Amino acid sequence: MTSGNAGFKNKTTDNLLILSRITAAVSGLSELDTILKIGLEKTLEFMDGVSGGIMLLDEQKKMLYYRVYKGLSQQHVQGMHLKMGEGIAGKVAQTGKAILLDDISLIPGAARPHLIDMEGLKAFISVPLRARRNVMGVMNCASLKAHHFTEKDMHLLNSIGDQLGIAIEQVKLYEQLQSSREKYRQIARQVIIAQEEERKRISKELHDETSQMLAGLTFNLQALIEMAEMIGIEDRQFKEMLKKALASTVQINTEVGRLISDLRPTLLDTLGLIPAIRQHAESNLTPLGINVSFKYEGVDKPLRPEVEVSLFRWAQGVIGNIMQHSQAKKVSIFLKGDSHKIELCISDDGKGFDPSKLTVKSGRGRGAGMFIMKERLRSVGGDCLIQSQPGQGTTVTATVPLAQASLD
Ligand SMILES: Nc1ncnc2c1ncn2[C@@H]1O[C@H](COP(=O)(O)OP(=O)(O)OP(=O)(O)O)[C@@H](O)[C@H]1O
Ligand SMILES: [Mg+2]
After folding, report:
1. Which of 288, 325, 327 is the pocket-test mutation for ligand 1 (most atoms within 8 Å of CB)?
2. How many Cβ atoms are within 10 Å of 212's Cβ, its own excluded?
């Protein structure tokens, strides 16, 4: 038994070439099994080994299992799961040091000798797959001929193991990132759903209770004014106060009505997305002297209610920004559907801004509104794009793929 380490003193041009070819073959790949399969195939080709495989370490069970293999029977692979320190591969994983054997069938410390005999394995190299200091697994390479591999082969394989280890770690980090992104998105989705439910509840309460009471109060004040006229009350101040109270009540009720429609746009429920967006834009922008043009085409399929609510809320956010920040004179809204997607585009001719200066990526601070609007769309499978430059107006576009948006 010969023990090796990562030192690679007798580098030859050939070895460097092999190493760079393997690195090139696996770089840019993002799927773990593809990286391992290509890495193994290329290695066996260069090493002239008949069989081999890559065993990955299961972190929880602390066991090594074959993940990809070539030239080995399924029986061998299934039976060969090793604890850390067990057999040759287990030792390599534990110590992080490569092992070269002239004939594994003669080694008493080898695990499952019957499986080794069954395959007729003789010369054997096992190297760790390392990323920084962690061993992620091992790569085994075997030949049916004893003394087939040299020390130089082991060093080369060791270097290949290091390359594969780094590639494996990168894939794992990427997978972790993807999964935490997905978790985060699920939470954002739940928050948006809960927010919508709460808005519905408050809007219903305002409509059924507050608005009804205010309507009753308006009616009573009107009746009082008429009564005061009928019974000939002369006190001007008293009559003025009654009239003021009536005007305030009417104004409050209008405000409550606006609040209700902001919270839960009734038009969205009754007439659908197009009139709801149009009404919201016109009733908010026209009083500010902003000219609104509205166009739509190809939106003939019924959309999922959650998609309609998301697009409407998104438009509300964009219109709110136009009112608050843009100083625009003209706004155009274009809702367009085709066979792939629904697109809602809102442009203004206002002062514009630099979108790269939006620092918020987490729902707080400057840009929080945009962030939440984007997440709202993402919660229904869509996304949005902001195009703006100081002095050049702003165009924001929301897109939802039809597969997610349409009811059929
Ligand atoms: N139509 C627009 N015209 C000019 N600037 C805009 C426009 N829309 C957004 N902005 C700029 O982008 C910034 C971020 O907008 P965002 O909606 O994310 O946050 P906010 O409006 O400042 O706060 P919030 O929406 O949370 O009340 C705004 O502060 C503003 O500077
Ligand atoms: Mg905003």
Report:
1. 325
2. 12
Pick from 76, 71, 20: nearest CA to 89: 76
Sequence-separated (6 or more) residues with CB below 8 Å from residue 264: 199, 200, 203, 204
State CA 129 to chain mean position distance: 30
Within a 10 A sphere around the Cβ of 177, how many other Cβ atoms?
A: 10
Cα–Cα distance, 328 to 44 (Å, whole number):
67
What's the mean per-residue pLDDT of the chain? 88
Pocket test for ligand 1, best of 284, 292, 319, 353 (most atoms within 8 A of CB): 353
Q: Answer whether 316 contacts ligand 1 (Cβ < 6 A).
A: no
Q: Which of 204-208, 258-262, 334-338 has the highest mean pLDDT?
A: 334-338
Q: Is the CB of 356 under 6 A from ligand 1?
A: no
Residue 284 beta carbon below 6 angstroms from any ligand 1 atom: no
Predicted confidence at residue 65, as pLDDT, reads 96
70-89 per-position pLDDT tens digit:
999 999 999 999 999 999 99
pLDDT of residue 362: 46
Domains and CATH numbers, the chain: 2-179 (3.30.450.40), 267-405 (3.30.565.10)
Confidence of residue 272 (pLDDT cuts 50, 70, 90): confident
Beta-bridge partner residues of 343: 336, 399
Query: Which one-letter amino acid corresponds to residue 62?
Result: K
Q: Is the CB of 265 under 6 A from ligand 1?
A: no
pTM, two decimal places: 0.58
Does pLDDT of 9 surpass 60?
Answer: no
Q: Dump the DSSP string for 153-201.
A: HHHHHHHHHHHHHHHHHHHHHHHHHHHHHHHHHHHHHHHHHHHHHHHHH
Query: Which helix H or strand E contains 20, and what residues bound it?
Result: helix 13-26
Q: Which two tokens stand for residue 380?
A: 């229904």
Helices 305-321, 368-378: crossing angle, 10 deg rounding: 160
H-run or E-run covering 66: strand 63-70
Q: Is 260 helix (H, G, I), strand (E, B) or coil?
A: helix
Cα 295 to ligand 2 centre (Å)? 24
Pairing of strands 99-101, 124-131: antiparallel
